[in-house]
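ok so for the tutorial part 2 we go from a plain amino acid sequence to predicted structure tokens. step 1 is just haveing the sequence, like this:
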Amino acid sequence: MTRNPPHFKQIPAPAVDLHCHSTCSDGTVSPAGLVELAIRLGLQAIALTDHDSVAGLPAFLAEPAPGLLRLSGVELSCADERRHVHMVGLGVRIDHPPLLAMLAQVQEWR
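step 2 — the prediction. this is what the tokens look like for a chain of 110 residues:
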């Protein structure tokens, strides 16, 4: 006996970019410009994840963005004796003293 597979309603995938860099690290667009670009491209959500910096987040979050979900983020440089990796953190608090202290230390090491 052959069974027909269930039919699933096709749900369109949301248009999001959760790993964006601005001119505050190695990107080519300002934090506010990223918001404008995301709106023009029709994105539904965007995260600013500059390398080891939250400096661009105030401008990014302050830019008017009707219909666009903005997430604070940071791309952290991590290393041990064997490897160097980047880890993306989303929803970071830009006024969190331990995070700011760690980012300042990483900037010194660069």
